[in-house]
Structures are given as C-alpha cells and as structure tokens.
C-alpha cells in the first residue's frame, strides 16, 4: 500500500508544468497568450540547462500551425497552412536565443504540392 501511495505522489509531483530551477526554465512548459478571438498556445519541454528539447507545438485558436523537434542546437521544423496541410519543412539552428534557417527548406501550397525549395547557408 505504501508503494502505491509513493508512486501516486511521485506521479503528481513530476507532472508540474512551468517550473524553474535557479531562474532557468526546466521541464514541461505551456505558454498561453492572446485574446479569446486570437489565442496562442505553445507547449514543450526544457532540459536542465534551460534549452528546448523534444517536440514543441504551436497552436493558434486550437489549430496546430508549427511543430519543432529539437536536437540541440538544431531543430527539425514543420509549419502548417490554416487547413492543416504542410506549408514548410526544414532545419533551423538556435544560438543565443536566435533562430536561423539552415540547409534546404521546402515550401508547399495548400494542397501539399511542392512549390519551391531554398538552401540557406550559414
């Protein structure tokens, strides 16, 4: 019985969001901003050094418009049209809170037909 109680407490304590450690964002985070007509929600995780890790998702009015998978200092990025179809796919580089496109980015129309590709060199 004590084991079940311990596991339950551990589960609830570990599920906290928007935590900081010595002023650095760590663990799961959820940012919410805007008004009822234009609401922005961002969800993701930070590592113990305050760097983004894993998958981050960006929603505008409950519709996914961006997804990022972090491999610090790089991320694989997918942006979406309002209809939910892919609009851009590429890789970015993050340094000192600055986000820069790198490598080849692919651009699609609202029917997910490839329309362009651009290679960024840094």
TrEMBL record:
PROSITE patterns: PROKAR_LIPOPROTEIN. This is MORN repeat protein. It comes from Paenimyroides marinum. The lineage of its organism: Bacteria, Pseudomonadati, Bacteroidota, Flavobacteriia, Flavobacteriales.
